[in-house]
Amino acid sequence: MKPTGEKGPLYGINMDRIEVPETWRNRAERSIAQGALTNSKRPQSLVEGVYPTHLLKGKGPYVWDSDGNKYIDLIAGLGTSILGYAHPEVDQAATDAIRDGLCLSLSTTLEVRAAERIREYIPYIERVKFLKTGTEACMAALKIARSYTNRNYVRSQDYHGWSDPFVSLMDPASGVPKFLGQNNHAIHKYEKPGDITQDLAAVIIEPVNVDFSPARVEELKEMRKRCDETGTMLIFDEIITGFRFSKKCVTLKTKVKPDLLCMGKAIANGYPLALVGGKKEIMDNDQYFVSGTYCGERASLAAMIKVIDLLHSKYDIEFLWEKGQRFKEIFNNLCGGFVWLDGYGTRNILKAENDKNKALFMQECCKGGLLLGPSVFYNFAHTQIEDSIFSIIRDVMNRIKGGMVSLEGKIPSSPFAQKMRGQ
Ligand code: PMP
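Above: inputs. Below: predicted complex with 4'-deoxy-4'-aminopyridoxal-5'-phosphate.
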């Protein structure tokens, strides 16, 4: 469809004179800065030219694109969907909360109930602050740590959101003050436990990105020890691993206790909610300022309470964890080393010997009705349709092995976030 009602110059282009196929992508590029809201949802982050660019809806393990095509979705909303999209009981809880007003003028009883539930569910958390995004939770954790220790310097290792200190470590760090890496807000890269010194307020890491080897657990213990010796706050960013890892999170699984813990994504099955929690003497320090109009937004808090209820009653994280490990093994066997999943049962990174093989595999899966991203998130909804997933992968591998296919789209370009992780 050509643009109809648009007359006159738009950014210097006369829309009457050029024929632009009216795709959702074109429309997005004319209205949304940089064409997309989320870095890893940009067309360039996937196999551009083959992947759909815009979705209409999701349900359970499925999504539908703007042309109505249905896909099994192993990207799972970048890890937010742990029970499946549009889960009826979670949505009902959120809808009930909305009916009583989403954002009220004083603190609400629901936020107290939500805080009590999270303390009970993750007993390590004695006090909590709810926020909306993982970025905010990690920013808050740094601030709380600096305030408590009265120190400035921090170190970090992985992706912890888009706030200035973290982005200052990622090229090109455009728009971030150039002195941020050097002055009082200094942040440096964490590489080894010996980097934890007495001038550090905090070290923030993802305790498990995908490596859950005994060596990694040893490193976490060593970090804990160094933090105790130097009075440094150990912050675990469990934005991804929270409610997704065996025993609910890495902290409870490994029993290596951080001073502060961040969670997000899966905790409310896709409703915008994140949290930072920890010991009361650190969290209750009155000197820091962390606050937001929407922190007590009630639909997300109600959704989180319902997710916890369901993880107690209907859904067992250990079952998902083990089924996910088997899923990974079968997936890897079927792919015979052309591509492979690297990680733990509920979260893996798709790897290949080269980017072209990875792109070709993603392209063929997409054409077969299976969406994969750089990260593959396995959730409860996928457990019901594994056979369909494996059958698509079998067909894809037959086509690839038979030399019947070639790359039609572009090789995904890494978002900044992934450059940090050395991928
Ligand atoms: N920490 C980690 C480990 C993440 O993966 C992400 C997001 N992918 C964030 C923090 C930032 O979370 P958000 O995008 O909700 O701000």
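The radius of gyration is 22 Å.
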